[in-house]
Each structure stands twice: as structure tokens, then as C-alpha cells.
Design goal:
This protein is of the alpha/beta class and about 140 residues long. The protein has a single domain, classed as 5'-nuclease (Rossmann fold), CATH 3.40.50.1010. The protein has seven helices and five strands, in the order βααβααβααβαβ. Helix 1 packs parallel to helix 3. The longest helix has 14 residues. It is globular and about 40 Å long.
Length: about 140
């Protein structure tokens, strides 16, 4: 199983074969799980490409179909009562609450984390979470 960081997914969607992440290769035969905010993060990250005309609105259907083929499981949002625990975890590992959601999900599922984010990679490695790709740019 892998936990897929939204920024890594967008990086792959934007750059495809020229990217540092071989997402189809990493996902082959592995379930993908993501935190609840992933869908909004990916959607939001595509907007600047549309505004800059690097991506057409008509391209979004194909992107959605490709993402659907990856069979990504979106976890439900944490309960409001978990705010303190999430913030404490994030503070303890010097990451954002967003990064903490990916790290905690990887730990809960004993999954590898796919990310290019240096802070998230550092925290994952200190927690014993496998990080993919093995080397980031």
C-alpha cells in the first residue's frame, strides 16, 4: 500500500514521463490511500495551470479518468475531536498539519509514502516510514 501526497500526484500529472516519480510503476499492484483533503488539494493545484492556459478545462475529464483508474481510496476526514492530536503530532515532527495527515495515514496503514516534500520525507524517515521515490530531485 502507498500513501500518495497530492503535490507528488500533481507533479506527475503535470510532467508525466519527464517527472521524478514513476507513479504508474509505484502504484502497480499496490492500493493507494490518501487523506480526505487530497481531492481538494489536487483540484486546487490544477487551477493555476488552467489560469496560465497550460491546461484546458476540457483536459480535466481525462485527468479525472486517469486518477479513477489508479483506484485511490480517500479516507474520511478526522473528527473535530482529533484537532489537538493532529496539531501535537505536527508540532512534534516539525511539519504542517497537512503533512501530518499524510504521515499519520502512512503509519496507520504501514504504507510507504510517495512524496517529494523534503520536510515530509525527513519526518517520515525519522518515524520509520518508507519513502518513495527513494531519491527526490
Amino acid at each position: 500500500m502507498i500513501v500518495l501526497d497530492a503535490a507528488a500526484a500533481v507533479d506527475w500529472l503535470r510532467d508525466g514521463a519527464d517527472d521524478a516519480i514513476d507513479l504508474p510503476g509505484l502504484a502497480a499492484g499496490r492500493p493507494i490511500v490518501v487523506p480526505s483533503q487530497w481531492t481538494l488539494e489536487v483540484s486546487g493545484a490544477l487551477l493555476p495551470a488552467i489560469a496560465d492556459r497550460r491546461l484546458a478545462v476540457s483536459d480535466l475529464q481525462g485527468i479525472s479518468q486517469y486518477i479513477d483508474m489508479l483506484d485511490i481510496r480517500v479516507e474520511p476526514a478526522p473528527a473535530a475531536g482529533q484537532i489537538g492530536g493532529i496539531a501535537a503530532f505536527a508540532a512534534a515532527h516539525r511539519v504542517s498539519a497537512r503533512a501530518a495527515s499524510y504521515l499519520r495515514l502512512a503509519m496507520q496503514n504501514e504504507a510507504a509514502l510517495v512524496t517529494l516534500d523534503p520536510d515530509m520525507r525527513r519526518a517520515a524517515e525519522s518515524l520509520g516510514v518508507a519513502v518513495l521515490p527513494v531519491s527526490a530531485r
